[in-house]
Design a protein that fits this description.
Layout lengths: L19 E8 L4 E7 L5 E7 L10 H14 L2 E3 L5 E6 L7 E3 L10 E7 L2 E7 L9 H7 L9 E8 L6 E9 L4 E2 L1 H15 L5 H7 L5 H22 L10 H16 L10 H23 L22 E3 L11 E3 L17 H28 L3 H12 L11 H26 L12 H20 L3 H12 L11
Antiparallel strand pairs: 1-2, 2-3, 4-5, 5-9, 6-7, 7-8, 8-10, 9-10, 11-12, 12-13
């Protein structure tokens, strides 16, 4: 999309130095127009504005929801000021009024609304940024009959007059009722804590406590595998292929490690020696992967190539309401973020990336719950507990105000039980061994894990997030076969 200023757009309802109107479309007889804008970064976004000029307030969202449903039903093509088009395409949408519904909003980078259309609940998602183009609407359309994803009802997109490129603006899909996988996991883990007080074998208690969720977790894992299979079939020849760029991924990991090595820890509470030990553990992993790559080791195993969800979290696996009698179709996948062919991340895909994402989500989730519980037991702050946990994992004393051994024993017991619980969840959900069996995983899995951990560690450093950085370092140290004993 070329950068143009639309002379007919009238006064932009946003600071001129922040966003620039490049095109617009009047949605006839609705009192609403769509503005396509470019940001200083070159990315494109869009906004709603009232028809005419002089009013900078964005139209009522519920009114626009109803407008979109009507335009989708009519499959309208609305011309833009510069010769482009806003294209509305749809499947089957029931006739009837469109009314707003209450919605328990989760954090999202997009705008979400729940609407009632003739008694059926739909989600109307508006993408805040439109470049690179979102791939979700087309994926939902293609996957509509698989039962893995919400049922696609329609979407609308801006077609640029410059090159005919399509930029999805929003999508309408049937609302999936139920709860994310994180909900029963949180309930189960929190039920473990009281049992630890009198348990002669905390490890066995942690594993045994997961029995009620074994069926749910196995079905969620099986659903994910079926989703990957059907996603690859839906994309067909449009898929990313089977040649994951191992060399460039290793170079990116080495570059990230080098950049982190030039930085001090996020806080003085993290000793430099511990920081270096964690990075050393990741360097050992990277060096071994480089060696395998140079020796011609095959990084892919059967089923490890192809497209994936792209940004999978525990909350993206939706269970039917209280689905403790799981069956095929009882787990749905939402917020599909598979890159489009125009996205730089198109070739950086593998079903293993989704498994790694869930593994990392489990690590954050479990460690956060354990630190919260340990801190409550000891009357301490969660961040203080996070730093104490990583120092203890590295067998390093706290530089100042060290914790009493009795407190460390409590924290150690809680974290150990949580780790055992997490590894059992991982085994049931992902079919992967836990903790000390990382070497049994494929080289590609290890590379993807390393890449994601480095990305998250860099992000947490950049944003001065001590709590999350401490968790990352604890997980980095776990990559080493033995805890570091290097002197600080």
């Amino acid at each position: 999309m070329k950068r143009h200023t639309d002379p007919s757009a009238g006064p932009a309802p946003f600071p001129a130095d922040a966003e620039e109107v490049v095109d617009q479309a009047e949605l006839a007889d609705t009192g609403v127009r769509i503005l396509v804008l470019t940001e200083p970064s070159g990315s494109h976004t869009w906004r709603l504005a009232p028809s005419g000029v002089g009013n900078s307030e964005e139209p009522d969202a519920s009114r626009f929801d109803a407008v979109v449903v009507e335009l989708l039903r009519a499959r309208r093509r609305v011309p833009t000021g510069r010769g482009g088009v806003i294209e509305f395409r749809a499947g089957a949408i029931p006739e009837g009024a469109t009314l707003p519904r209450g919605f328990d909003l989760q954090p999202s980078s997009n705008s979400l609304a729940l609407v009632d259309v003739a008694g059926t609940a739909y989600v109307h998602k508006r993408y805040r940024r439109i470049s690179p183009p979102a791939h979700e609407p087309e994926l939902l359309r293609r996957l509509g009959r698989t039962g893995h994803t919400p049922r696609w009802a329609g979407d609308y997109r801006y077609v640029s007059p410059d090159d005919g490129a399509e930029y999805p603006l929003g999508v309408l899909y049937e609302h999936v009722t139920g709860e994310g996988l994180d909900a029963p996991l949180r309930e189960n883990l929190r039920s473990l804590w009281p049992k630890l007080r009198s348990s002669p074998s905390p490890d066995a208690t942690a594993r045994e406590g997961l029995r009620p969720l074994e069926g749910v977790l196995r079905e969620a894992g099986a659903s994910l595998r079926r989703f990957h299979r059907d996603l690859a079939a839906a994309l067909g020849g449009d898929g990313p292929g089977d040649a994951y760029p191992v060399g460039s991924a290793l170079e990116a990991a080495s570059s990230s490690l080098a950049a982190l090595g030039r930085r001090p820890p996020v806080s003085e509470e993290i000793p430099v020696g511990l920081w270096n030990a964690a990075l050393d553990a990741l360097r050992v992993e990277a060096d071994d992967l480089w060696l395998r790559h140079s020796e011609g080791t095959a990084f892919h195993e059967e089923g490890e190539a192809g497209p994936c969800h792209g940004d999978l979290h525990l909350s993206h696996l939706i269970l039917e309401p209280r689905a403790y009698a799981p069956h095929p179709g009882s787990v749905r996948v939402i917020d599909v973020s598979t890159p489009s062919p125009a996205d730089p991340g198109w070739r950086l895909q593998s079903p293993l990336a989704d498994r790694v994402a869930l593994r990392r989500a489990l690590e954050y989730f479990t460690t956060d719950e354990a630190l919260d519980h340990g801190a409550r037991l000891l009357g301490r702050e969660n961040t203080d507990a996070a730093v104490a946990a990583v120092l203890d994992a590295a067998r390093r004393p706290r530089p100042e105000a060290p914790w009493p051994e009795a407190d460390l024993t409590v924290l150690r017991t809680v974290c150990r039980a949580a780790d055992v619980w997490r590894d059992r969840v991982s085994e049931l959900l992902l079919g992967s061994p836990g903790g000390g069996n990382e070497g049994r995983r494929s080289p590609l899995y290890r590379l993807l894990y390393l890449h994601r951990l480095l990305h998250e560690l860099t992000y947490n450093q950049d944003h001065a997030r001590l709590y999350h950085t401490a968790m990352d370092l604890r997980h980095a140290l776990a990559r080493a076969t033995e805890p570091s004993t290097a002197r600080m």
